[in-house]
Amino acid sequence: MKKILIIIFTVAIFVIGGIFGYKKILSIEKENKIIQLFNKDSLENFSKNKNEMLEKLKTLNKEEADKLYEQYLESNNTILENLNIEHDKLLSGGIYNNEDTSENFTDEEWKIANKFLNKYDLELWYLARGTCIIKEVPDFYYKTFKDYVTDDYKEYLKITSKENEEHYVADSGLCITLEELGDRIVTWENFLEKYPNSKLNDKVNNICNSYRRDYILGVPGGIYDYKESAEEYNRFIKKYPDGPTTELLGYYLEEVNLDEPENNDSEDLSKMIDEYIEKYFYLGSLENRKKGNLFSEQTNTLLKEFNKNKEEVINKLKTLNKEEADKFYEDYLESNNEILEKMNENDYIMLDNAFYIGEGDIDKEKLNKQNKFLDNYGLEVIEIEEGFMLTEKKNFYYNIFKNYVSDDYKDFLKLRSEDIEYIDYLSSINEHPEIVADKVINWEKFLEKYPDSKLRKKANDICYSYRDDYILALTSSQTTEVLKNGKINEDVKELNRFKNKYPNSPTTEIIKYYLENYKNDDINDMLADKNIEIYNKGE
Fold this sequence. Notes:
By secondary structure, the chain is mainly α. The chain has 5 domains: about 1-35; about 40-165, no CATH class; about 175-290, no CATH class; about 290-405; about 420-539, no CATH class. It contains 26 helices and 8 strands. The protein has helices at about 1-35, 40-55, 60-85, 90, 105-120, 140-145, 150-165, 180-195, 200-215, 225-240, 245-255, 265-280, 285-290, 295-315, 320-345, 350-355, 365-375, 395-400, 405-415, 420-430, 435-450, 455-475, 475-485, 490-500, 505-515, 525-539; strands at about 120-130, 130-135, 170, 175, 355, 360, 380-385, 390.
């Protein structure tokens, strides 16, 4: 019995061993069959190229290593392009995720193929629509160059190696979450801020802008949920309130219809976002933002032109007589108006939105920082009725021309330098009309002092505007009703103050006319006609 058991046991060992041996043979055959699908000589060429590069890399300083990386990357791209062309039949033949073809790799076969390719620091990578490519393993360039290149290159390669670990997009759209994509944007923004002079920044800025577009507009083939995306954008805005992309998201959220998303025109939204990114996320924009400069690339180009023109004007003035300087001022003013018009047109979106916090509160810190940057140009951003506007500082022309032009031009520019800011002017009319009254008198005195000035029409227009606003503010229907009731209010007191202080002023003539005719139902039209009559006398 014992002998029989020994015999059975011995036979079993041989049978089991044979089975395992057979399976191993089959496994080796399968592995060899897959390996034979690849051209080993081409793979060896890739490795040889790497080894030759490594020997050279060890002899270089960091800046030279940066340059070698760029050259090697270009060389590798060519080698890999040829490698993929050589294996096109295999790679485009449905070897991944396509059970309808006999060529489809099982998970095991996919692992075998990549185990083989990994020996060369390569791997199979599913691209899209049944197509695969052979590419470097995710950390290939980082582990190869990290100990040799400059800090910016090292960090760049580290970031890209991490991003390359997972698919970004596939047939069904994004393969990472919107939040992860938002974090990628911030990572690259931080890189641009940390290394403002890196030679990689053009490439990095393009990556960042591509991510911004996909983050907001989605990717082809993806399902876009406006409301779900808006929740992510609000998270981003809250987490990165001072980030440049936050302004872009704020602009988008103002334009998109979240209540009726089916009414959104995706093409219009796409065009809007593309234009905004092109304008405000140019290479160097983050560095400019640190200086307070929020303007577009086009406007920054015009700012340089504006400053260059100013320097040329200052030098040219020294060679002119007063009459020539007067004419030169007119030409320069016209030229500047054209440039400023272009700049305001370029950046009307930014000017309408960038300097507000919440519901209409002004971000004074941001506005002051922007204007500090503009000091070098003699320009400033000022608040107007809706939004903001870029314009010259009030004393811009006076400071440049005061020592060169004739007396009437000098006085004209001095008065213009003392103009009231737009928003302050609106409040002055109602709260401090005496301030506007002083402007009226100053311009009336100019017209009286320089009856033959070439600036007379401009001065008369300005005077008319101040006078009209002053009179309209003080002769409202409420004031007229007060007078009809035999009483007086603050407006009437101001009218009396003016006519008593300036009895010979043309404006006093209008005030007297009003006080004599306020009972007339057509008094407003009569006052308008009277103001035009006085304006015409000033022509």
